[in-house]
Amino acid sequence: MNPQTAQTAQTAIGQPNALAMVFFFLFIAVTLGITWWAARRTRTTEQFYAAGRTISPAQNGFALAGDYMSAASFLGIAGLVSTSGFDGLIYSTGWLVGWPVVLFLIAEPLRNLGKYTFADVVALRLKQVPVRIAAAIGTLATVILYLIAQMVGAGGLIRLMFGLSYETAIIIVGAAMIAYVLFGGMIATTWVQIVKAVLLLGGAFILAMLVLARFGMNPAALFHAAAERYGQGVLAPGGLVSNPWDAISLGMALMFGTAGLPHILMRFFTVPDARAARTSVFYATGLIGFFDLMTFVLGFGAMVFIGPDAIRAVDRGGNMAAPLLAEFLGGTPFLGFIAAVAFATILAVVAGLTLAGASALSHDLWVNVVRGGRASGPEELRVARGATVVLGIVAVLLGITFKGQNVAFMVSLAFAIAASGNFPALLMAIFWRRFSTAGAVASIVTGTVGTLLLIWLSPTIQVDLLGHSSALFPLKNPALVTIPLSFAVGIVVSLMTGEPESDATYHEHERRMHLGEASAGD
Amino acid sequence: MTAGVDDTASRIRALARARARVAALLTATMIAIYFGFILLIAFNRELLARLVVPGLSLGILLGALVIVASWLLTWVYVRWCNTHYDAQMRDLGAARR
C-alpha cells in the first residue's frame, strides 16, 4: 500500500454519514432502554445519588474509566500526537498519574466517611452551612467549566462528523443527558458510562490493531516510519513544553486534580464498601492506562497514514486525526462507528458531570444549607431532579453561548480548580485533626478564586485569547502556585481559629474511616 | 473501660498508621516517577531523543513505563491491603464489639 495516497485527504468527514447516524441512534436507543430499566430502581435518594451502593468493583472500574476518558483524551491526544509527536504523549501520561493518588489517599476514607458528595466528608466534623456552601462553589466551578468544554467540543465534533448544525447537536446532547440523569439517576448514568467505556476501548483497540497490523504488530516499526517521514524530532520533546515550570504546573494540576473531580469522587459512593472502592480504582487505572498506551499508536498511526498537514486541513486543532485514521483503514463504515463512539463518549461524560452538579445543588446546598439538614428523602429527590433539569438547560445555553470560542483550556482549568480548590480541603478533612471550619472555607475559596484569577492573568487568556503581548502571570496553568497556597491558607487559618468540636470528634470519625460504617454506631 | 478495649483501639491505630505509611510511600514514589519524567523532558531533551532501537526513543519508552508503573503501584497497594490490612482490621473490628 502507499500511505501517500491519503495526503490528499479524500474524506467523508463533514458529510452526513448514514452509518454513523445508525450507530449513534442505536446507542441512544440502548441507553434510553437502560434508563427506563433504571428508572424503576430509582425511588430513593440513595438510589438516585449512589445507585443503591450495589455497583461491583469491576463495574465501577469501567464507569470511572468512562467518566474520565472524555473526547479530549480520545480525539484531542490522538490529534496532538499526530501533529506534534512525542509532545502529545506528555498529556497521555499526565492523564493517568492522578489515579494512584486517588487510590492511596482518597478512595477508601471517602467511601467510609461520606454519603453522596465529597462535601459530606469535608463538612463531617465542621459547621455544615459555611463548609457546604464553599464546597458547592468548588464543585460547581469544576463541573461547569468541564461542561462548557464538553458541550462546545460536542457541538463542533458533531457538526464535523454528522453534518448536523451546532445548535441541534447541543440540544440532542442536552436532552439525552437530562433523560439519563432525571429518570435513571446514578444507576442509568453508571451503565451509560460502562457501555461507553466498552465501546471506546473496543473502538480504539480495533483501530490500534489495524494500524499495527501494517507494521508486523511492532510499535517501534510504526514510530520508525513516522521518524523517517517527519524527522527524528517527532520522537523527542519539542517546542510544546517550552517553559519547564509550565510543564511542572500542568503536571501538578493533572496529578492532584483527578482526586478533586466531583463526578469521579461521587462514584466511590456507588460501591458497597471501602474494599470495593479500592479494587475499582485498580480496574480503572488499568483500563485508562491501556487506553493511553493505545493513543500512542493511534497518534503516530495518523501521522504516518494521514499526515499532520492533511489532519490540520480538516480541523485546525487536529481533533479529527482518529476519525480520519479510522476512515483510511476501515472505510466509511468504520468512520461511522468511531464517530458514533466519540459522540457517545461526550454524552456519557456530560451525564456524569450533570449528576455531580445536581448533587451539589440538592444535597449540599438545598438539604444541608437551606433546610438545615432536615429535608425528607422524597423532598431531596424532587429537588435533585429539579436541579438536574436546571443544570442540563444551563449546560445547553452555555454550550450555545460559547460557540466558536477556544475552550480547550477550560478542561485544564477545571483540573486546576479541582486540584487547588477541592483536593486540599478533602485531604486535610480526612487526615488532619485540627482542621477547622474557617480553615476549610478559606482553603476552598482561595484555591478556587485564586485559580480563576491567575488563569485570567495568564498567557492563556491575556495572550492567546485577548491578543495582548504579555501577561502578568507567567504560567499557563496556575496549579504550581495555587495548590501550595490553598494548603498553606487552610493550615494557617485552622491553627488560628482552632475548633474544639472538630478536634474532639476526630477519633470517633477516625474509627469509622478505618472500619467502615459497621462501626459507626458503637 | 477495660485494658482489652484500649489494647484493641491502639492496635487499630497502629494498623491504620501502617496503611498510611504504605500509602505515603507509594504516593511519593508516584510523584518521583512522574515529575522525574517531566523534569527530564524539561531539562534533558537530548537524553530522551536517544534511540533504544530504531524508532523507539528513550522518551517514548519512559512515557510508556510511567503508565505501566502507575498501574503496578496500584496493584502493589491493592495487594498489600487485601492480604494484610483487611484481614487484621476485620479481626480488630470484631474484637472491639
Topology:
The complex is a heterodimer of chains A (522) and B (97).
Chain A: H1 18-39, H2 45-50, H3 57-68, H4 71-84, H5 86-94, H6 98-113, H7 118-122, H8 128-162, H9 166-213, H10 219-230, H11 244-257, H12 262-265, H13 274-305, H14 308-314, H15 321-370, H16 377-401, H17 409-431, H18 437-456, H19 459-465, H20 479-497, H21 500-504, H22 506-515
Helix pairs in contact in A: 1-9, 1-15, 3-9, 3-13, 4-5, 4-13, 4-14, 4-15, 5-13, 6-11, 6-13, 6-22, 8-9, 8-15, 8-16, 8-17, 8-18, 9-13, 9-15, 9-16, 10-13, 11-17, 11-20, 13-15, 15-16, 17-18, 17-20, 18-20
Chain B: H1 3-43, H2 45-49, E1 51-53, E2 56-57, H3 58-96
Antiparallel strand pairs in B: 1-2
Helix pairs in contact in B: 1-3
Nutshell version of this structure?
The complex is a heterodimer of chains A (522) and B (97). Chain A has 522 residues and is mainly alpha-helical.
Fourth CATH level, the homologous superfamily of chain A: Sodium/glucose cotransporter
Radius of gyration of chain A: 23 Å
Overall structural class of chain A, as computed from helix and strand content, comes to: mainly alpha
**Biggest β-sheet description of chain A:** none
Give the helix level of chain A as a range of percent: over 70%
| CATH-derived topology of chain A | Sodium/glucose cotransporter
Give the largest interface pair and sizes.
A-B, 55 and 51 residues
In the CATH classification, which architecture of chain A applies?
Up-down Bundle
Rounded mean pLDDT of chain B is 87
Overall number of strands of chain A: 0
The total domain count of chain B is 1
> Strand content of the residues of chain A, in percent?
under 5%
> How are strands sequenced across the largest beta sheet of chain B?
1-2
